[in-house]
Specification:
This protein has three helices and eleven strands. The protein has about 160 residues and is α+β, with helices and mostly antiparallel strands. The chain has a single domain, classed as Lamin Tail domain (Immunoglobulin-like). The strands form three sheets. A five-stranded antiparallel sheet has the order 5-4-9-10-11, with no helix packed on it. Strands 1-2-7-8 form a four-stranded mixed sheet, with no helix packed on it. The longest helix is centred in the first third of the chain and has 24 residues, at about 10-30. The chain starts with 7 loop residues before the first helix and ends with a strand. The model is unreliable at about 10 and about 15-40 (pLDDT under 50).
Length: about 160
């Protein structure tokens, strides 16, 4: 195939069109926020410790070794009154009135019974909450809006937590 030479006017026209397309594409890419930035959630599930070391002991000291950690990712103190944590089964923890979490701070909710503080709450169960073979933790705000889901799966010698 023989290439036909472009006239100077046609060459300039194509070069300008290509340059404009590159500038437009660059502007669009620079203006588009990353996918993670589009999702704003005030509360983050940091970790679900679903299987303490050793064998499961049917005692409160065993139950309290199981926990879920939440972090306030926002810039304001969160009032957690009425927020709910659920597992895949019938387990449900509702935060009582007056529980707050300051920006950047972490709160641990342990499955068993104990005395709550500003950094640790107790589910108050006389059993384990999270299934050793895998489970899903969900956090809802006081209006019932799901804020996050965290799935724990267990494979051959490997545990994966996806939040």
């Amino acid at each position: 195939m023989v290439a036909t030479p472009l006239s100077p006017a046609r060459f300039l026209s194509r070069t300008l069109a290509l340059g404009a397309a590159v500038v437009l594409a660059g502007t669009m890419l620079a203006a588009a926020p990353p996918a993670e930035a589009a999702v704003t959630k005030p509360l983050d599930i940091v970790k679900v410790h679903f299987e303490p070391k050793g064998s499961d002991k049917p005692t409160n000291s065993g139950y309290t070794q199981e926990y879920i950690q939440l972090r306030n990712t926002g810039s304001r103190t969160l009032n957690l009154s009425g927020y709910v944590i659920r597992d895949n089964g019938p387990q449900k923890y509702t935060f009582p009135k007056g529980v707050t979490l300051k920006p950047g701070k972490t709160l641990t909710i342990r499955s068993g019974k104990g005395s709550s503080s500003s950094t640790t709450r107790y589910w108050g169960k006389s059993s384990y909450i999270w299934n050793n073979t895998g489970d899903t933790a969900r956090i809802y705000d006081a209006k019932g809006k799901r804020l996050e889901t965290c799935t724990i799966t267990r494979g051959t010698g490997k545990t994966t937590q996806t939040c």
